[in-house]
């Protein structure tokens, strides 16, 4: 049976084949014509379009009301790429991102403000310069941890034009070819029950307080915000989806209790549910 997982793997393999043969062609001649070398690219685009259309139709057919959960952060944060403004919020249904949201922390009184986007210089900033870095992240509901990993490094920011172009033209391509785990970086997946799973992406390396199989209560600290994976700066990427596999899951709409769904560039304040802290 030709499953969605098979289609996703085929799509990734075709892109990888295209880039590998392009790299090889710079050193040796390919044993087939130049026109043939473009076939993997054409096929990859075709499979990608078919996947996107099929996923979009499935999401429309299985539309669900927003699932209300607690906010995953505390303090002042600003929303980016919000589903309150458009869906899919990140321009794709891939990896269950249809209703995903990115949030960045705002400086509290006396703290250094978040570095702004630079056209040329500085090319990159250290993660520690951003208020979101190392901010605690909390369980949005009583749940079971189904996946937890935090071994990938926190890289420098990509918040300048040269660094952003590097991210979009090279780094992001490599990460997509390597698979979903390289895109989301360090991450957690929680089973909230009733066919709903929560994803916390771009976590700080070594910050997890839980592991797969743990049962957690709403408000418990799970990890800290980082800058791993396909990330321009330290932030939390949060989403709900209908399964634990990022390659096959569909996005599920959410609303944060007491906050709702903040719009792009909207700043909100949050207080997590009472919790016992990391165990």
Automatic annotation (TrEMBL):
Pfam families: Peptidase_M23. Residues 173-242 form the M23ase beta-sheet core domain. GO terms for molecular function: metalloendopeptidase activity. InterPro entries: Cell_wall_metabolism_enzyme, Dup_hybrid_motif, M23ase_b-sheet_dom. It comes from the Bacteria. Signal peptide: none annotated. PANTHER family: MUREIN HYDROLASE ACTIVATOR ENVC, PEPTIDASE-RELATED. This is Peptidase.
């Amino acid at each position: 049976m030709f499953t969605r997982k098979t289609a996703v793997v085929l799509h990734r393999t075709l892109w990888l084949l295209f880039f590998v043969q392009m790299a090889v062609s710079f050193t040796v001649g390919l044993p087939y014509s130049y026109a043939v070398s473009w076939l993997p690219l054409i096929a990859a685009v075709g499979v990608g379009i078919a996947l996107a259309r099929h996923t979009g139709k499935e999401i429309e057919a299985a539309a669900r009301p927003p699932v209300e959960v607690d906010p995953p952060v505390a303090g002042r944060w600003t929303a980016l790429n919000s589903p309150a403004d458009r869906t899919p919020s990140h321009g794709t249904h891939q990896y269950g991102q249809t209703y995903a949201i990115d949030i960045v922390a705002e400086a509290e009184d006396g703290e250094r403000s978040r570095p702004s986007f630079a056209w040329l210089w500085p090319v990159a900033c250290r993660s520690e310069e951003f208020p979101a870095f190392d901010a605690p992240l909390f369980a949005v509901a009583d749940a079971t941890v189904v996946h937890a990993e935090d071994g990938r490094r926190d890289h420098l920011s990509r918040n300048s034009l040269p660094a952003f172009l590097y991210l979009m033209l090279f780094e992001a391509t490599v990460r997509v070819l390597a698979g979903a785990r390289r895109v989301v970086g360090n991450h957690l997946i929680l089973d909230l029950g009733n066919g709903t799973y929560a994803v916390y992406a771009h976590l700080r390396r070594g910050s997890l307080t839980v592991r797969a199989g743990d049962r957690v209560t709403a408000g418990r600290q799970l990890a800290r915000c980082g800058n791993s994976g396909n990330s321009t700066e330290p932030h939390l990427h949060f989403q709900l989806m209908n399964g634990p596999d990022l390659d096959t899951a569909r996005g599920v709409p959410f609303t944060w209790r007491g906050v709702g769904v903040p719009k792009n560039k909207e700043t909100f304040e949050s207080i997590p549910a009472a919790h016992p802290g990391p165990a």
